[in-house]
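TICKET: design request
STATUS: open
ATTACHED STRUCTURE:
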């Protein structure tokens, strides 16, 4: 089996190009991880890594034995398609869930993203709350959502409601809202722990003045979720620049929408 033929690698190459087209992938901004399917994990189950194991500052027994495709630290998204073996790696979590080994990739001597704590802790949470469905986490520097974090209160209910009011699709796509965090030091264990805590309830997390994290079952859906939230943020910024809202989708209309599409909206955003 040629690892470069994995559909996860194809998806990652395609979506990282899209992210660059959106203008979200400046320099080495952003990182992606995918928990591999059983079929894609199979080649690594019996293999021993030649590399020394890397210890994690936490234990995630929920992910013991799982393998992840992860973008490397310092990697420019625009180069992933041309240099997948240098830009990407596959890591396997050990049987205790407190360390990992590189099984493939990072061929130029790289290592996984510096946001590994946020990715792995969030995967552990989402695997549990989605009953194994959510396998992908994308972190990217969405221009409009970042801009919004300078002008709106950093409050989950407020930002969720503002985005929902911009277009009907938002409440349908993310009824669970967008979890909002204050600015924190990137790459730290603290930002990883705080993010994974919010991932219990939300599939989109806004890191103020930094970017977004989205999760879901596949790259397409996660990208779509992020793209929709950022488009709503773009419209809100335009509305603000044009003098502010004169009218919007009302709380009653949002409830009608939720009922029509049988979704359970985040309660604190719809009062
Ligand atoms: Zn970032």
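STATUS: resolved
RESOLUTION: sequence designed for all positions
ATTACHED SEQUENCE:
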């Amino acid at each position: 089996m040629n690892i470069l033929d994995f559909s996860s690698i194809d998806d990652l190459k395609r979506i990282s190009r899209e992210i660059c087209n959106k203008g979200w992938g400046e320099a080495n901004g952003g990182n992606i991880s995918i928990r591999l399917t059983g079929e894609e994990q199979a080649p690594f189950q019996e293999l021993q890594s030649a590399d020394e194991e890397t210890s994690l500052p936490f234990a995630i027994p929920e992910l013991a034995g799982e393998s992840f495709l992860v973008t490397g630290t310092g990697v420019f998204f625009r180069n992933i398609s041309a240099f997948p073996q240098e830009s990407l790696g596959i890591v396997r979590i050990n049987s205790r869930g407190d360390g990992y080994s590189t099984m493939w990739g990072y061929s130029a001597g790289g290592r996984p993203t510096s946001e590994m704590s946020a990715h792995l802790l969030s995967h552990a949470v989402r695997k549990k709350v989605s009953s194994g469905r959510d396998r992908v986490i994308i972190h990217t520097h969405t221009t409009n959502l970042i801009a919004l974090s300078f002008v709106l209160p950093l409050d989950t209910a407020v930002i969720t409601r503002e985005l929902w009011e911009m277009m009907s699709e938002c409440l349908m796509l993310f009824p669970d809202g967008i979890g909002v965090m204050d600015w924190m030091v990137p790459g730290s264990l603290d930002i990883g722990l705080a993010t994974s805590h919010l991932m219990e309830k939300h599939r989109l997390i806004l890191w103020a003045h930094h970017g977004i994290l989205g999760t879901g079952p596949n790259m397409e859906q996660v990208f779509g979720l992020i793209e929709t939230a950022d488009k709503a943020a773009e419209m809100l910024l335009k509305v603000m620049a044009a003098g502010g809202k004169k009218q919007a989708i009302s709380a009653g209309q949002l409830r009608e929408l939720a009922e029509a599409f049988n979704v359970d909206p985040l309660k604190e955003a719809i009062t």
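CLOSING REMARK: The chain has a mean pLDDT of 96. Residues 115-271 form a domain with the L-fuculose-1-phosphate Aldolase fold (CATH 3.40.225.10).
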